[in-house]
Amino acid sequence: MPSDHNEDRDEQQLTPQQKQAKGFSQQFAMAMELPFVLVGAVAVGGLIGYFLDRWLHTKPILMLVLGFLGFFGGLRDVLRRLPASGDGKSKR
């Protein structure tokens, strides 16, 4: 069953103030989400490394390695989610 929801039609009906408010709310939502993405990636990598260290009796080696890999993976994800242009408008 096709949907009657058309984003292009909805976008054309917005006033300039509504478009500005929508853009601000999207930027605010992204600013609130990105720290959790970065910290979550480090925490997941570190926890997996911690439990592998306990299982393999290798103490902090795997926790540090997987924590750093989680950091770089989280940083990559944060940079991927940021808009490509510097004017604050996404090119989606």
Overview of this protein structure:
- This protein has 92 residues and is an all-alpha fold.
- It has a domain at 46-82.
- 74% of the residues lie in helices and 0% in strands.
- The chain has helices at residues 7-12, 16-56, 61-81.
- Helix 2 packs antiparallel against helix 3.
- The longest helix has 41 residues, at 16-56.
- It is elongated.
- It starts with 6 loop residues before the first helix and ends in an 11-residue tail after the last helix.
- The mean pLDDT is 85.
Q: Give the N-terminus to C-terminus distance in angstroms.
A: 26 Å
The average pLDDT value, as a whole number, equals 85
Proportion of residues in extended strands: under 5%
Please compute the radius of gyration using only Cα atoms: 20 Å
Q: In which range does the helix fraction lie?
A: over 70%
Give a quick account of the main beta sheet: strands, pairing sense, barrel closure.
none
In terms of structural class, how would the helical and strand content be classed?
A: mainly alpha
Tell me the quaternary state.
single chain
Unreliable parts: none
How would you spell out the order of helices and strands? HHH
Structural key phrases:
92 residues, mainly alpha, 74% helix, 0% strand, elongated
Indicate the topology.
Elements: H1 7-12, H2 16-56, H3 61-81
Write a short abstract of this structure.
The chain is mainly α and 92 residues long. Helices cover 74% and strands 0% of the residues.
